[in-house]
Amino acid sequence: MTSKNQSSSSNGPVLQNPLSNAPSTVEWIQHLELGYAEPPRPPTICFGCGKQASETIKLSRCGKCSVAAYCSRDCQVQDWKTGNHKLACPSYRRALTIRSPYCEDVHATIRNELFARTRFYGCPYAVFRTTDLGRGFLFLQSDQTLQNMSLYTCKDLTGRTITRSVLIHFLTLGEFDSEVCKEDFELALVRTKLKELVDGYDKEKEVVLLFKFRCGHMSLGKAMLVPDYKICKKLGQDYYAENPTGALQLNLDEM
Ligand SMILES: [Zn+2]
Ligand SMILES: [Zn+2]
């Protein structure tokens, strides 16, 4: 599913820092791994200056996360102090656990963080669109893997800068069937539970969420509206009235 009609986040308030431990307000109901193949990773570069390892340059890893690599002590100190590795280090350590099949709690934490970062846009958007369309859900698609989305800075596990964005649509079940599933038939795997949620949620208190990441990780859940309904209604009007049918694109690294 694509939309040419996207609105940018540039007029809204700045996204919340994800590092604050957002309370887990999402009840996750179903998750799936479609297991899309990822291209092979390029070799790691220095997280400080970007140099590649060579015969003369040897990279050594951060002792805490074993991910970040540096060509020199200077680059390491610099990245720790000014490049935010101090903040990001635990997220690299965590990222290494993501491919294990037994870490749904880690996956849920990462999805909760993503919801916490986007809910001040997504919830008002859902409330606003519900007024026109009736019951539906937020379909949040990420152009990055769950692993890349889990990192606290915009450098991937090889040290390369990434820009991460999510595209959010509000969809009714009818649109889900006629537009989305036609292009992406695997989404039909969540149809039964999705219908239960969309038929049953409290429009003035809750929002239904379907997350999909580039790696094929998908999850369906239900969350409390944050901010609350009245504020969502007001913000929805303020933000989205001028572009009522567009999808919402949020660039998470423009912070
Ligand atoms: Zn370096
Ligand atoms: Zn580290």
Automatic annotation (TrEMBL):
Which keywords does UniProt give here? Answer: Metal-binding, Zinc, Zinc-finger
Which Gene Ontology molecular-function terms are recorded? zinc ion binding
Q: Does the keyword Metal-binding apply?
A: yes
- Family matches, as PROSITE patterns: ZF_MYND_1, ZF_MYND_2
The residues covered by the MYND-type domain are 46-89
Pfam families membership: zf-MYND
What name appears for this protein in its UniProt entry? MYND finger domain containing protein
Task: Say which species the protein is native to.
Answer: Nitzschia inconspicua
